[in-house]
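BUG: 3D viewer hangs when loading the predicted structure for this chain

Environment: internal workstation, default settings.
Expected: structure renders.
Actual: progress bar stalls at 90%.

Input used:
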Amino acid sequence: MINVLVADDELPAIEELAFLLGRDERIGTILRASSGAEALRALEAGSVDAVFLDIHMPAVSGLDIARAISRSSRPPAVVFVTADEDCALEAFELAAVDYLLKPVRAERLARSVGRISELIRDGGTAPEMITVDQGGTTRMIRRDDVTYVQAQGDYARLHTTDASYLIRVPLADLEQQWADAGFIRTHRSYLVALAHVSHLKLAAVRPSVCVADAELPISRRHLPAVRGKLEANRIRPQA
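Structure tokens produced before the viewer hung:
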């Protein structure tokens, strides 16, 4: 069970998030704090596995709390909860597990809890983050959120379940850099995250792979490598 602390200077926001967390069977004790100072006292007093921090609390902000607990020998996982994206870059520089935008959706929160579980299970390994620019705003996204990558000339478009982002890196470069992270080239235009593959069709006429809601082609050239990778990872193809 994951023991958590919810910190926000607005009581309705605390209760809403605590309610959603309480519906998740992976969550144990839920502590509440209505200020940054109260959150720090709660962290000193009890054993907390993860903290959900509002960024814009007066006096002691969520970022201040994250900086303070990062100096401890066993810091809890940090998830920031905020109404804007202005602090995303600084948040992930503080090794945040996730960055949730208000109002928090139940399914999005469940993904955060899953990430916390993974972090605890893996012994605190920080997620690989990618910096992307979107509409003049710099954002940080997790590499394990990328379902597939699409070539667009000298650029690559990163697709997640929520959005897509254009980065100035050729697909061939990402193929080499992300090979050890479970990405495989399936076509001259596509690089696919095996962790997000739902099923495959390896028929001789039009082989394809389904990732999230997209069905992507597998070229004849890349088909042997895809088969080999699937066998190594014990993913069973769908006829």
